[in-house]
User: What shape does this take?
Amino acid sequence: MNNEAIIGERSTSHRETTATNGRLDHQRQAAAKNGEPEWPRGIESLTKTKVLIVHSLPLIRFALARLAESSQQFAVCAETDDVPTARELFVRHRPRIVVLGLTLRGGDGIELIKDFRKLNPVAGILVLSAREDALSMQRAFRAGARGYLALQDDIPEILMALDQISAGNLYASASVARRLLKNIANGAIESVTSELKALSDRELQVFSLIGRGFGASRLATELHLSVKTIETYQMHIKEKLGLRSAAELSEKATRAMLHSVRRNLQFRKEVSQRNGRLFALARTKNSRGSVNSSAVKDRKYARHYVAMSTSDF
Assistant: This one.
């Protein structure tokens, strides 16, 4: 091949590469305008597991996206805090894993989990939520979640959860596992679910927010619903719980919330004391293996609980 032909091929290749890069840059800019993260560069992104982030807190979404980018296995395909948009992004990108919170704009996280499971039963759903009550955890798993993390869990827990769910396993962080086991031991799950099992997931969300002092107007704003819709939910809750007035509903919800707060505070105190003892033990006896084995046992029993949680009450 003569030099002119070689130069001609190089020139053509350069023009094609420039045109391709121009199209990719245009697509990346369009994605940024739509609130989606910039497309990962490089062929290696094609082999990474796609993750969709659905969470109400922008800081959480940003942190999760940066964490996924730092890994060699995961790539964030899109993010949002809105339920209708989340459904659209789920269908468009077909992610392998979804990380979501339970309180979202335009809908409820539990119901969204159910929708995702109907659209693609293979997708793994990881809940990252501030809700630490056993009932929310149980309902999330029953809806189809494959993992559950609390907001205070460490970063390594998130990566471990993504790895396990990507491999098709169930996952509960150490703190979630201990909380579930403690509630099982104390019979708290059975006592709560036996009383509130008649409520739908959305009604339970409304009930919990009423216990935190939310009135109808604030509930409507928080859940992005009309006041009339909130009043309908309140009416259904009163009927199902045998309550005669809004005052009785507020009193019952407040008592339930205070009971949950007391249990959470007691649990955190016990976990703090337990971690302190383990740390002291590790320092004095170099018993790192014992500490790890304890966490492994917690997760082992938690996985057994999660499997049972997917069945009916």
In short: The mean pLDDT is 76. The chain has 13 helices and eight strands.
